[in-house]
Design goal:
Order of helices and strands: HHHHHHEEEEEH
CATH superfamily: Tgt2/MlaC
Structural class: alpha+beta
Organism: Neisseria sicca ATCC 29256
Distance between the termini: 5 Å
Number of domains: 1
Keywords: Signal
Largest sheet: 5 strands, antiparallel
Radius of gyration: 16 Å
Strand order of the largest sheet: 1-2-3-4-5
Oligomer: single chain
Strand content: 15-25%
Protein name: Toluene tolerance protein Ttg2D
Number of strands: 5
Signal peptide: 1-17
CATH topology: Nuclear Transport Factor 2, Chain: A
Pfam family, one: MlaC
Length: 198
Amino acid sequence: MASYLSAFVLAAPMVLAAPYVAAAHPAQEQMQQNIDTVLKIARNTSLSEPQRVKQIQQYADRYLDYERISALAVGAPWRNFSAQQKTDFIQAFKEMVVSMYSHSALVGAADAKVKLLPKMTENGNKFDVFSELQTKSGKKYEVAYQLYRVGSAYKIYNFRLDGTSLVTVYRNQFNELIKQKGIDGTIAVVKAKGLKKQ
């Protein structure tokens, strides 16, 4: 699961090497563009690791909807967060995940392979774009990137690895934390990067 959450940090399809696939849909074309752009950054040895992480994060910020990811990861209790608590949680969650998984994600760029698959699903304004991820050991996973359209761009709001959802992985932890520590206590744990790796 750690490799999956590394994908969340740096948007897996953007970090790992992928051959070009003739894309039939703009959502697939965007994912291919993401792959090419971030792969170039990840393999730029003239930059230090912190510089590469920063550049990749800045690029990913354009395509990852952290607010929606956070809301889905928290689930029903999200409606009880104040506007300030939501802002604080989103920032803390983003910083925690980047801190926990950025190194392993960059290392994975050299070893793993991912290819876009021709299949995709469409439901109104929501789209699932699929890829196949192969680790250095040869194990393969299917990764689904869930997106929605905003103008001409597509924002990522969830990942699924072999059917396991990113937001579901974290929701169990957040729900338990909120019961034990309340909303402010949960935000404090996230700010302190106190959640365990999955």
